[in-house]
């Protein structure tokens, strides 16, 4: 790799998933949702090491892939309602993007530790992501998982039945992508 290079990739190279949980006395009635959104990333390399990363997620692209649990399966109208509720909580019209930026990238045993800033709505907070990297002969396979709390960003998780069933404060964000080497 040259002394300085830039990698650009997006949703066509992999996926970003958000998995919610359900809590409260009536939690068994709710669905644990798996959501996806489109994203794009830029990685700037210096001397064969990643030096800066910027990831932007398009909130309006949010899709409900599936719902697990609940009294019955998640129907099409319920998926549409869950999407609408999530967009409302994220205030997608006013804040159409979520971003993560890191200029503090260090090598770890199985990849890289990314220390940066995660911005959701109008709140930016320090956030760390452990990125697992498999360097294959012709590609890099990257994956990671991190927990984000609604409360850290001033978001109020969806609830119903006067709070007897609500989305957990913590959601899991997972990422997997593959990039041709070089």
Automatic annotation (TrEMBL):
Gene3D superfamilies: Lipid/polyisoprenoid-binding, YceI-like
InterPro entries with a match to the protein in the record: Lipid/polyisoprenoid-bd_YceI (IPR007372), TTHA0802/YceI-like_sf (IPR036761)
One Pfam family from the record: YceI
Superkingdom of origin: Bacteria
Lipid/polyisoprenoid-binding YceI-like domain ranges (all copies): 6-180
Family, per entry: Belongs to the UPF0312 family.
The name this protein goes by in its record: Polyisoprenoid-binding protein
């Amino acid at each position: 790799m040259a002394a300085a290079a830039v990698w650009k990739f997006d949703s066509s190279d992999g996926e970003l998933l958000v998995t919610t949980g359900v809590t409260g006395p009536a939690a068994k009635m709710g669905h644990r949702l798996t959501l996806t959104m489109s994203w794009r990333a830029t990685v700037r390399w210096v001397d064969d090491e990643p030096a800066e990363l910027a990831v932007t997620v398009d909130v309006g692209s949010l899709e409900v892939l599936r719902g697990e649990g609940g009294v019955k399966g998640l129907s099409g109208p319920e998926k549409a309602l869950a999407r609408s509720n999530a967009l409302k909580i994220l205030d997608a019209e006013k804040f159409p993007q979520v971003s993560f930026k890191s200029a503090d990238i260090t090598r770890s045993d199985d990849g890289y530790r990314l220390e940066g800033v995660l911005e959701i709505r109008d709140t930016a907070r320090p956030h760390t992501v452990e990125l697992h990297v498999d360097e294959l002969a012709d590609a890099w396979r990257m994956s990671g998982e991190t927990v984000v709390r609604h409360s850290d960003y001033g978001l109020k998780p969806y609830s119903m039945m006067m709070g007897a069933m609500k989305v957990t404060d913590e959601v899991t964000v997972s990422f997997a992508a593959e990039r041709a080497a070089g």
